[in-house]
Amino acid sequence: MTYPLIVVPFVVVTVLVTLATRRRPRFAERMASSALTALVLVGLTLVFDNLMIAVDLFSYPEQHLSGLKLGLAPIEDFAYPLCAAFLVPALFTLLTPTASRSALPAQKDTA
User: Fold this and answer.
1) Is the dihedral of CA 49, 59, 79, 13 positive or negative?
2) If we measure between CA atoms, which residue out of 73, 78, 76, 43 comes closest to residue 57?
3) Model-level pTM?
4) Model confidence over 46-104: pLDDT tens digits?
5) Bridge partners (DSSP) listed for residue 74
6) For residue 79, how many other CB atoms are within 10 A of its CB?
7) Interatomic CA distance for residues 9 and 56, integer angstroms
8) Containing H/E element for 73?
9) Using CA atoms, how far apart are residues 85 and 44, in angstroms rounded to an integer?
């Protein structure tokens, strides 16, 4: 079960960073947009991973998988698009100055 263990740090970081933005404005809107994005990305992953595996473009050693699959695609493949859908907007939110900070007048150097 190597692949599920590789996914765990990505999921943990995504959850922590996303939760760190819960007090920022428009959290609910961001979560709704991320959920919709995740749904689209998971759908695309489902289609294209199954196609690529079906035509033998790549394969996974069974001993490294959890055993859960959606079609031919291992469930672990779906963690990355889910993480991307939530982590990228959360990082953008954390790295963007809040309106209250940017609205403050600049302090003059009195020295």
Assistant:
1) negative
2) 73
3) 0.78
4) 999 999 999 999 878 888 888 888 888 898 989 999 999 999 999 999 998 866 545 54
5) 69
6) 20
7) 29
8) strand 73-74
9) 13
